[in-house]
């Protein structure tokens, strides 16, 4: 048993080191590019803005939580950030519908199909899903088997959720680091899609995977804090209704 826990802790340590290397060492080049020419590299600027937004969200939420002796400001800061990207993702579906309507009209009524419709469709669809996964967790809308779960009390559900989130956390950390490497490799070679005559660069789209799972990581940590809050002070969140946790 001790050997198992030692191996598990070593596994977690390697994941943390992988995550640290990806997000605290490999990102320096993007900050340098943006510092030298902020508006000539728009995608690099957006990458830096996202990372700075994550840091500021956590920092401001932590400061407010320490000042107020409560974790709720940090939880609210994280959830507002994930909700903002969910809002962007929702508008992505609107842009997707508009582009598809344009393509249909152009193809079947004007006889001039576009070169970009297919590429835009999968990029907008993928981006919208990536931006929404953290919000889906926040709203507790991910698929789960709940025939037993729904019949348990708030504290029992929080124990189950806490156990599940703690197992999920290292996996999300691993995915965040792996997706950063996946994106960074595409960025270094300026990878093109190769899917159409348009053939755009693909690495900006691949960065949306990083965004989605970093947001999911933040939201998972917020869910862990909410579970601990319920177990220690159940009335804090009961006043808002059990749907906040369940």
Structure overview:
With 246 residues, the chain is mainly alpha-helical. The protein has one domain. 76% of the residues lie in helices and 0% in strands. It is built from 8 helices and no strands. The chain has helices at residues 2-24, 28-36, 42-68, 72-109, 117-138, 154-188, 203-232, 235-238. The two termini are 33 Å apart.
How do the helices and strands follow one another from N- to C-terminus? HHHHHHHH
Q: Which structural class matches the secondary elements?
A: mainly alpha
Distance between the termini: 33 Å
Helix residue percentage: over 70%
Radius of gyration, Cα only, in angstroms?
21 Å
Mean pLDDT: 90
Helix count equals 8
Low-confidence stretches: none
Beta-strand residue percentage: under 5%
**How many domain modules?**
1
What does the largest sheet look like?
Answer: none
| Anisotropy-based shape | globular
